[in-house]
Design a protein that fits this description.
mainly alpha, Four Helix Bundle (Hemerythrin (Met), subunit A)
């Protein structure tokens, strides 16, 4: 829901950084992989209840995630890079609830499991429609600079990261945050399934 506004704010500074990094020889796939492995360090940090350290790894991961796309737009978008980026993003997202579950299984495990279940709904509906949108050559006017069609919802990347930040800042409320955000993810998944199904059915009926 907030991604389009966040992108508008960060697009210019990311572009300036991408131009400079491209001059230094940075490659988008290298940035993607580096950000992913740094982000995965949040998992053991969370398990050890080092929440401030985990938050720093999450922030760095998201910074690299913005930079890899900006560099790719400077050097030329590729399907391989888009595939790598979105796949590693979903793995990273899943690692954060797992980290909180390991940190405090008694209080967090069920809420973390619920959130992972909800992530499956948002992720599956997102990727399935992106595949069909590509097959039917459906335009993506809101996120025209993305490799995949980004079908919207009330929980997108910005909301996901905001929830992770809140969990790190207020770890004792992790379960409550996970339940609330998970329910919002279910609403998003439901709306995507409904919208995606009817959009594709209308196209096939023409």
């Amino acid at each position: 829901m907030l991604d389009r506004y966040a992108i508008a704010v960060i697009r210019w500074p990311l572009k300036q950084a991408a131009v400079q990094l491209s001059r230094w020889g940075a490659k988008p796939d290298t940035v993607t992989l580096s950000g992913f492995f740094i982000g995965l360090l949040a998992l053991p940090a969370l398990a050890l209840q080092a929440y401030g350290l985990a938050l720093s790894f999450i922030v760095i991961n998201r910074l690299f995630d913005g930079l890899d796309g900006a560099i790719a737009r400077e050097q030329g978008l590729s399907d391989a890079g888009g595939f790598l980026d979105i796949t590693l993003d979903f793995i990273f997202y899943a690692s954060i609830p797992l980290g909180f579950a390991l940190a405090d299984p008694a209080n967090n495990a069920i809420a973390a499991s619920f959130l992972l279940f909800c992530f499956m709904g948002t992720g599956a509906s997102f990727l399935a429609f992106a595949t069909m949108a590509s097959k039917h050559q459906i335009d993506n006017p809101v996120y025209a600079n993305k490799s995949l069609y980004y079908i919207g919802g009330i929980t997108e990347g910005t909301e996901t990261i905001a929830s992770f930040v809140l969990m790190c800042l207020f770890p004792s409320y992790m379960a409550w945050i996970a339940w609330v955000f998970g329910i919002a993810c279910l609403v998003t998944a439901s709306s995507r399934v409904w919208a995606g199904y009817h959009t594709l059915r209308d196209i096939e009926g023409r």
